[in-house]
Design a protein that fits this description.
Layout lengths: L5 H6 L5 E6 L4 H6 L5 E6 L11 H12 L2
Antiparallel strand pairs: 1-2
Length: 68
């Protein structure tokens, strides 16, 4: 777990919202046959997930394709 908990935010009267992604609803989990887990985000401001390290997959894929 990273960051503040719902309990901390509530105790400090910080307005927040919750976003949930269930692993069982993701294409990758279906491909792997593993449908257990979830991601839960608590936020009180703009949520913007770029740039991320996941971009490395895209860069590596293009690098490999360029070598074909």
């Amino acid at each position: 777990m990273i960051g503040r908990t719902e309990e901390t935010l509530t105790a400090n009267e910080v307005p927040y919202e919750v976003g949930i992604a269930r692993y069982s609803e993701l294409a990758k989990s279906m491909m792997l046959g593993d449908e257990t887990g979830m991601l839960k985000l608590l936020f009180d401001d703009v949520v913007f997930n770029y740039p991320t390290l996941a971009e490395a997959y895209k860069v590596a894929a293009f690098d490999g394709l360029n070598k074909l």
